[in-house]
Amino acid sequence: MPRGVCSFVIAPTILALLTIPVVGADDHFEKSVRPLLAEHCLRCHGPDKQKGGLRVDSREALLTGGESGPALVLGKPDESLFVQALKHQGLKMPPGKQLPDEQVAVLTKWIKDGATWGGQTTTTGSATGHAARKPGQITDTDRGWWAFQKPTRSELPKAGANWAKTPIDHFIAQRLEAEKLPHAAEASRETLIRRLTFDLTGLPPTPAEVTAFVEDRSADAYEKLVERLLASPRYGERQSRAWLDVVRYAESDGYRADGARPHAWKYRDYVIRAFNADIGYDRFVREQLAGDELYPNDPNALIATGYFRLGQYEYNQKDVRGQWAAIQNDITDVTADAFLALGMGCARCHDHKFDPVLQKDYFSLQSFFAGIRFVDEPVFPSAAAKTEYEAQLAAWEVKTATLREKMAALLSPVVAKIQANMGNTYPPEIQAVLRKPAAERNPGERQLYELAMRQIRELEFDRAPAHLGKRKDEYDALKKELDATAKPAAPMAMIARDLGPDAAEVLIPGGRKKAVAVEPAFPVVLGASPPAIHTRRDSTGRRAALAEWLTQKDHPLTARVMVNRIWQGHFGSGLVATASDFGTLGEKPSHPELLDWLAVEFVEHGWSMKHIHRLIVTSAVYRQASVGTKGATADPENRLLSRMSVRRLDAEQVRDAMLAVSGELKLDAGGPAVPASTPQRSVYTRVHRNSPDPLIASFDVADGITSCARRNITVTPTQALLLMNGNGTLARAEAFAARVMPADGKNAPAGVTEAYRRAFGRSPTTEEAAEALEFLKQQVGVARNAVTPDSRRKGWSDFCHSLLNSNEFLYID
Amino acid sequence: MGSSLPHVERAYTRRDALIQGGAGFGGVALSWLLGNDSVAAEAKAADPLAAKQPHHKAKAKSVIFLFMEGGPSHIDLFDPKPLLNKLHGQKLPNTFKPVILAMGENDAPLMGCKRTFKQHGKGGLWFSDWVPHMATCADDLAVVRSCWMDGINHSGGVCQMNTGSILAGRPSLGSWVSYGLGTENTNLPAFVVMQDNAASVVNGPRNWGAGFMPAVYQGTRLDAGKEPIPNLHTPAAIGDDRQKQKLDYLAKLNQRHAEARPEQTELDARIRAYELAFRMQAEAPEAVDLSKESAETLSLYGADEKETETFGRQCLLARRLVERGVRFVQLYHGAGSKWDSHSNLDKNHSALCKSMDKPVAGLLADLKRRGLLDSTLVVWGGEFGRTPQSEQGNGRDHNPYGFTMLMAGAGVKGGRAYGATDELGLHAVEDRLHVHDLHATWLHLLGADHMKLVYKHKGRPERPTLNEGEPFTRLVTG
């Protein structure tokens, strides 16, 4: 890891904390040279155009040159045609205005220094694989990138024979031995159970659980603990969160109004259920991408298509086509990030400048979603439930028929007026779509129609009663009467289906050139055969084809990407540190053979996520202590895992742990989101994009707007102020104190021990206990001879509040 | 001492100093308050917000962005259009490229401007009678008439004016500046946001959010009053004595914990965060305390008049913050889209201009007489302008296609207009400046190159203007 000059003093966490842009081996090139080339040269000498036969997007291309000969003479800027052109000696580049002197100087110096390109002097297998790439084409070098090869299970290394507990350890030991780094000793049992319980369930262990584990002398005590936690319903509540980050889950629309999505939680509960039931990642992928096509009778799978409904929505956007394009792009970006770990966003406008992703790839991927329509519909848990609901509804309709007719009659003049002017405020193109007979609308127009009609319905028809004028009171009275009739509630869900067998045409925007239509296809660099699309009567079958391809057993990316995410959840960083970027700008895997081994193991075990968790947490590498090895200075980022990394609790863990420790946590599972003031687990609290809970937000929660592969870890005074002075933490501390303070005012040492065990999962040392008792005496008023029941309560509250503010509470060893 | 930008942090030695010196929370906090302590200096170097060297010599040290939320009408304020009055009541001539209107009164007639425009200052800049005080600052103001952006609605517009993109998720410009340049005063937030009323700004706090960057770069909402920052003060029910003892005890807990984990420097950072909170407790109330300001100064900002008091006080606060080294101050005037005058433009803009005009002029004059204007870039504008077409008879719809922003200070050559809209003020036509160009320009004045200011996110180099835009250097070269 080249890391500049200060690497020896930088510990891993501070890097996560500051998230400093990674200073690569050739920082100068990336920061100074490449931007200049990109900005001033590539338009005419890049993948799109090669004026004078010259490209300047690779070192090789510059050395080869164009019609006037080689552009560069390494080390000799004055003899380089490139520099002469920049200085307007003969050739004049860029045409028109000469670049400022300082920019010319940057490029001149770069050539003088040998014109290294991204730290490389050759392009083989490097980030510049696209160098020789012609527009719209992929080279063999591109295809050779590690992440595009099928994972294979290599033989277990011999290293680590005396230490290994699982196959994982042999791979870890191999690199540690090669680098002559020791591994750390196994952590204490108290440390292990706290680490494991937080990692698998997101909650701290109770004192009783700690005692039971510490005192369990059986040989498989640890394994039993792992099984208990994997089987806990709390496991899914924890593991779902990372996935919800990746798919940018939220329960509101975003944009200005940020309207609530009252049914969004169904998708969240689906994810939790899927993790708890360990349904297999392949099934999990297929249900989300194409549940309606592949499992049309499975209510879970229908709800899973809520995946497509998680993006933002602007309720009053007159640019209907623009908004639909934004929605489609958002779905494409998230799908590429989540399942392929390929940042494809750049390719929306041009062939990717760094990764072998073509603009065509972007829109070919988008084509899989080109038949989609968004529907809010009831999803019944069973056929019987549906029958029952329909009977109830029919009865209600009969009962309220007269009432509803009266209301409709009152509204009818207003509704007629809305209908007469419908769509008049939309751009001409949309007006034309709205006015076309339904049968004449092509699929793309139907999508625009539905999006426009959703706005018209919500903003105009639904608001019709407001325009009743004098008859409004009359209407309101009827409405009141109707509302009192208890209409049976349908189990609504936000899901996705297709318009029918035909999809909308997808065009690669041409800019000044003609737009080109594309069909569904997989990224060219993956060399896959064309998708096998089986059109259904009511569906294009496109999403099913995508899902089937992604979950092929030998897919190069799907399994690797997911095992890497699971790994990240346990070590703070993945084997590939950039969990949603396996492309050439991402980090390369620290242990490529291990990543492959895990990917193959994953698939061979039915894509069981619990199996991978089990393998990881039972390994020796996971059970290491976090302190006391030499590795800290030799490998500050801990990429080689010579110890466990110390990790801060994430936002949900901070809140949940406080509630757990204070005894207030209610383990009610599932259902509509609750306000953060309700002591339920954070995964069940309301996630509104424009108004996140302050505590959760301050501890770096994902924003629910773009896909988040790994959260930032920041340290801010806002957090300190919230924890120290905020009402929430103070209330937690009071409840915590009430739980641990001795009722009779005696035996304070027992209360101190209890508080330590709850907050830290261990008993205090003699010194710590003495210090705590001293602090209590001072706060309770013993020192001033002023002990009252109130002062005792306050004193204990201060003590517990300090524990909740402490680093030992906020960090996992 | 600033490191150069972007930087790599050291965060190790201070721990040793702390441990060796045996200093507790209180001791360290005190050393900060006294300043110039070597321990404090060491900690400062490790602060992600520590001041950094700019890419090139900066004209501006700070920015005050006066954000007129909702979209003020450029054609009724700074960009007079005689033809508009001539064509009043007629349809938009078909020689003008049609636009998508947010409210879609597609056939509404043009509406003439009822204001009186006059030329002011040596440069003869045009100002309408809605902004008589700002007109007195004519020679300091650059009127940029050719701005344009992509968002036709408030959400996208406000988002882009803050983050460069109409789609949510990117860091606010103030965050980029905090990240790239740090701040001169780490006892106060680097990026401060204020609102003139309690309504929620469109999109909420994510307008000043750090997007994909760490939260340490996000803006901090500051309220004038006893508790300028949420949770700043010790709750009354706790009291200072208990709090002090609690903090001392916490420092002991944390110190013991950290001693056993010498390689975990983040633990130090967290101890420091409590110290910074403590210092903010001391410094923030002073920064927002206007009681030491003279009656003359208060009056200059209109802080002594009912209509101008609120924004006047905030403009004055902005000056005080800039004086204290805050890097980026953003004031929302008309928070909650108050400038959004779809109907009754006259009534709406009269009142808003009245409450804004004198405070802004006061700010410019005060900065100037204190020598701060040279190092402070003041920006005035909304997320877009308004259409020459009428809406609901007496209002105007959103116009992202051409609108005006004002800039002053930091070497900007005032007293003249830059760029132009068409004859009706609908489209920017001459020296068109997209929001990306505006952001690149402001960054340029701060000494930051918008293409070199890079944050690596998901493996990709992200830049504040999405790799687009050019600084409009004529603002300073004339």
Descriptive keywords:
heterodimer; A: mainly alpha; two-stranded antiparallel sheet; 6 strands; B: alpha/beta; Alkaline Phosphatase, subunit A; two-stranded parallel sheet; globular
In short:
The complex is a heterodimer of chains A (about 800) and B (about 475). Chain A is built from 33 helices and 6 strands.
Can you describe what's shown?
The complex is a heterodimer of chains A (813) and B (478). In chain A, helix 22 packs across helix 23 (592-604). Among the domains of chain A are: 27-118; 282-378 and 499-550, no CATH class; 383-490, no CATH class; 725-812. Chain A has a two-stranded antiparallel ribbon with strand order 1-2. Chain A is built from 33 helices and 6 strands. Chain A has 813 residues and is mainly alpha-helical. In chain B, the strands form 6 sheets. In chain B, strands 3, 6, 7, 8, 9, 10, 13, 14 and 17 form a 9-stranded mixed β-sheet that branches. In chain B, strands 1-2 form a two-stranded parallel sheet. In chain B, strands 4-5 form a two-stranded antiparallel ribbon. The longest helix of chain B is centred in the last third of the chain and has 25 residues, at 345-369. Chain B is globular, with a radius of gyration of 24 Å. The two termini of chain B are 33 Å apart. The interface between A and B is large, with 103 and 87 residues.
CATH superfamily of the largest domain in chain B: Alkaline Phosphatase, subunit A
Number of strands of chain A: 6
- Class inferred from helices and paired strands of chain A: mainly alpha
Give the CA-based shape of chain A. globular
Helix- and strand-based class of chain B?
alpha/beta
Task: Let me know the average pLDDT of chain A.
Answer: 90
Instruction: Provide a count of the helices of chain B.
Output: 14
Helix % of chain B is 25-40%
- Oligomeric composition of the shown chains: heterodimer
> What is the CATH topology assignment of the largest domain in chain B?
Alkaline Phosphatase, subunit A
Write down the CATH class of the largest domain in chain B: Alpha Beta
Rg calc of chain B: 24 Å
What is the count of helical runs of chain A? 33
Shape call of chain B: globular
C-alpha termini separation of chain A: 24 Å
Terminal Cα separation of chain B, in Å? Answer: 33 Å
